[in-house]
Amino acid sequence: MTTQALRSTEIDFAETLPELGLVPALPPETRVGYQGQAGSFGYRAAARFGRPVSFPTFEKLLRALLSDEVDAVVLPAVNRVAGPIMEPLDALVRALSQEAGAVPALTVTAELRVPVRLVLAAPPGTALSDVREVFSQPPALRQCRQLLERLDANAIETHDTAFAAFRVAELGGARAAVCSEDAALAAGLALLDEDVSDIRPNFTRFWRIARRPSGPGEVDLTAEGMDLVPIAKPRVAFFTGPKAMAALDGAGAEILSLQGVPEVPVRGFGIVPERALLSLAGLAMRNGDRFVWLGPSPEFPTPPRMSALPRATEVRESTVVRVGTFVVGGGHRAVIAGPCAVESPDQVERLARAVARAGATALRGGVFKPRTSPYAFQGHGLEALSWMRAAGDAVGLPIVTEVMAPAQVGPVAEKAQVLQIGARNCQNYDLLKEAGASGRPVLLKRGFGTTVEEWLSGAEYLLNAGCRDVMLCERGIRTFEKATRGTLDLGGLLAARSLTHLPLLADPSHAAGRRDLVAGLARAAWGAGVDGLIVEVHDAPESALSDGPQALLPEDLEILLDGLGLLPGRSGSIERVRRAIDAVDHEIADAVTRRLELCRRVAEVKRRNGLPIRDEGREATVRARFAEALGAETEGERLAEALIALGLAAEGYEANAAG
Ligand code: PEP
Ligand code: MN
User: Fold this and answer.
1) Contact status, residue 397 vs residue 373, Cβ threshold 8 Å
2) Cα 12 to Cα 403: distance, rounded to the nearest angstrom
3) pLDDT digits (tens, 9 = 90+) for 550-592
4) 3-state helix, strand, coil in the chain (%, to 5)
5) DSSP 8-class letter at 573
6) What element of type H or E holds 432?
7) Most CB contacts within 10 A, which of 103, 259, 294, 336?
8) Closest atom of ligand 1 relative to the 369 alpha carbon
């Protein structure tokens, strides 16, 4: 498993989590001001928060906010390519300096990324080589310097990007506009070039700014309940003076420097990460250096997102649980595998070897089994725990086993490295308190009839009892559906992901109840970004003492884990490693086939638009990509050269070389 491979498929919650807060969804009648006109990027940002209201300048926009004409405004603060955007930030500083008190009347309440896909558009019939003037808003022009250089055209500044499109349509001639595709089409222009920003994908971070509530105290960042939208809530401070800037910089803040003025040569904004707030608390500035917090000051900590669950939903970096080779959470992904029940010393020893060889990082197995019928096999108890621990130790895997009663916790915690609380006990609070105080990490299954909030409340009991290493596992909830044993609630899992820092796992075996569906559900959960899986495995499922119908065979587990991109265990088996290599080769072959098909398609478009097949700038981008992933002047370069050559052949470059 590589982090790169993982990044491309999953939503990288781990990275954004510390910045995320939940804010109440605003009523649609909220009036949100923006600078520009309909179709502009500001319009799009405003529409995310309410009903957009247009203003011609940033000054008028902020004045409208201060005079209650709108409920909030959006301001473009930072662009990925061009960095801090001076015009709106300067306007914000002027609005702040007009205020008398030490606490500003304006607060930055949220940050929103708006994708910026700029196109170059001109009246139909205009060729790229004809363009002599390019119209756009100054910040947009700064985002596509390379294009302007290539065209050797004059940049003409306009109020906003949408206006540029209409102006170019009106004037005609050898002119083009840099604007959104929507604006270009609305103005009746044709696209000459797409996504023309110097760095792609380009986006602008807009700040939502509101008036500070007039009552005493701070901005209310508390949010309770689940009817909430996750959104980044930055801590923004305006600063002046080099000492203030150094303090912010030293604390890890992102600095947005503004052009100095004679009286204040050093000034700007700092966006302070949550973890750095403490180091800035109590900081007093002198000699003209100052901080003005545009939002709560560091002394005002961000409260947990659900105050009833202060530990489970605390805004903090992802919890990583580590038990030997088993590491889960914060980008580490793990697989727990083994039999439903420990049946005999032999059985658990064989299966421990099998799951270790497949690539599992922990061994599961029940010694106390919660069975629907009191006549069904109830587990071999503590004796089986010794067999299981020996089997785990022999292959270097920690063991995970269920406790069903408070009295079992002590003796089980002596041997098992991880305790499991089963679905039936998700809300057994006495058991949770006992397990939480055991000193062992605890895996908490979601009950089949518990909501996400109730499940997190179960985790809260564990955390409150002193356990820091809590893992959550979705294992199928009860629905009307009878085709499967449970319904794997991926929506609930993702909702939990935006609420909690704890590792989240999925158990496709108990959700499906049937072997044929386990791999598909496992892949679905993995694709949704779970931190781990727990899978039941048996080598003689027909004679298993429990849950045989849902057990994967060891070889099925190997295929599944190879497909998920995990590495096989260090079993010393050449054949096992070769099969994993075969799986990688199949993936590479599929990826190359797809890449070559895309090359043929791009060649079609190039021919249609009269563009040359070979584009050396693009080849440099491809080389840089592989050099970054695999190292320059080594494998990365050789792989890139091979792919570029194959691509050119697929595009028919040789046949076209003369043209
Ligand atoms: C188990 O994992 O063996 C088990 C009984 O699971 P659940 O509690 O999810 O039914
Ligand atoms: Mn089971």
Assistant:
1) no
2) 33
3) 999 999 999 999 999 999 999 889 999 999 999 999 999 999 9
4) 40, 20, 40
5) -
6) helix 429-436
7) 336
8) 5
